[in-house]
Specification:
By secondary structure, this protein is of the alpha/beta class. The chain has eight helices and ten strands. Bound molecules: adenosine-5'-diphosphate and magnesium ion. Adenosine-5'-diphosphate binds next to strand 2 and helix 1.
Length: 260
């Protein structure tokens, strides 16, 4: 794959917050990369290096100062149609049932509600929340709430799923389980996934490729392919191949003098 025919292309992407020039703060500096359709990309980097900014630019939630993000050669459209986003906190509406929460994008986008309900039920089945459709978010565990958020992000059938540290608030055991679940959901849905994470092992476990960013202003330090067989299990983490990639990423962070 060359950058010219890639599914998603990021070219010369920069973001300055505040006034350009002396008063502004350069958060992202000339990011260039290509992402293949259906692939799983993990992004790691020190705190404040611009990971969330990159994600918001890719979601169309923020305008670039320079450069472009395109999908099939077209700028990514708004927040709504092309991408689904999952944030660290599940931001489910507390007074609505799980099913009603998952159907929210259909109301916002004015989709056919009957079809949306069918799709919501299918997605809740895919994220293994059968039987919880009519519960309120607070009746679910943290991991279940994030699974509901994933279902909601997929309701309008976006081509890209963007995730910003979605499992950061979960305990270690639940997080491992969610990593297995996300691998399965990704394989079943065929979506292109971009996952921002603080966890190097999570990044490697899930990624076809790991993007390692530099400290602020964030740029792409290295793109590391993860050639480990799939489906991966927890024992994958004990393999020499996994350890070698983990070591390579840690070295980059140590060099940069910042560990997240
Ligand atoms: P990360 O997600 O990697 O921790 P962010 O993308 O959140 O980093 O932030 C990168 C830098 O940009 C930080 O210094 C942050 O304070 C700054 N920043 C992020 N959003 C804004 C904003 N809306 N206005 C001003 N500065 C911002
Ligand atoms: Mg962030």
């Amino acid at each position: 794959m060359t950058i010219a025919d890639a599914f998603i292309r990021i070219e010369h992407l920069s973001k300055t917050f505040g006034a350009p020039g002396a008063g502004g703060m350069l958060a992202l500096d000339d990011i260039n990369c290509a992402i293949a359709e259906g692939s799983f990309v993990s992004v790691v980097g020190p705190s404040g290096c611009g990971k969330s900014t990159l994600l918001r630019l890719m979601a169309g939630l923020l305008d670039a100062s320079h450069g472009t993000v395109t999908m099939d050669g077209q700028p990514i459209r708004g927040t709504r149609r092309d991408v689904g986003v999952v944030f660290q906190s599940s931001i489910l509406l507390p007074w609505r049932s799980v099913l009603e929460n998952v159907m929210l994008p259909a109301e916002v986008l004015g989709l056919d509600m009957k079809a949306a309900r069918q799709r919501a039920l299918q997605l809740l089945h895919m994220v293994r929340l059968d039987g919880f459709e009519h519960k309120l978010p607070r009746q679910l565990s943290g991991g279940m709430q994030q699974r509901a958020s994933i279902a909601r992000a997929l309701l309008h059938d976006p081509r890209i799923l963007l995730m910003d540290e979605p499992f950061g608030a979960l305990d270690a055991m639940t997080r491992e389980q969610m990593n297995l679940e996300l691998q399965r959901i990704w394989r079943e849905s065929g979506k292109t996934v971009i996952l921002i994470t603080h966890s190097i092992s999570e990044a490697i476990f899930l990624g076809d490729v790991v993007f390692v960013m530099t400290p602020r202003p964030g740029s792409l330090e290295r793109v590391i392919p993860v050639d480990l067989p799939r489906p991966r299990g927890m024992d994958t983490m004990a393999t020499p191949g996994f350890a070698a990639i983990s070591h390579e990423i840690r070295e980059l962070f140590n060099h940069a003098g910042s560990f997240d």
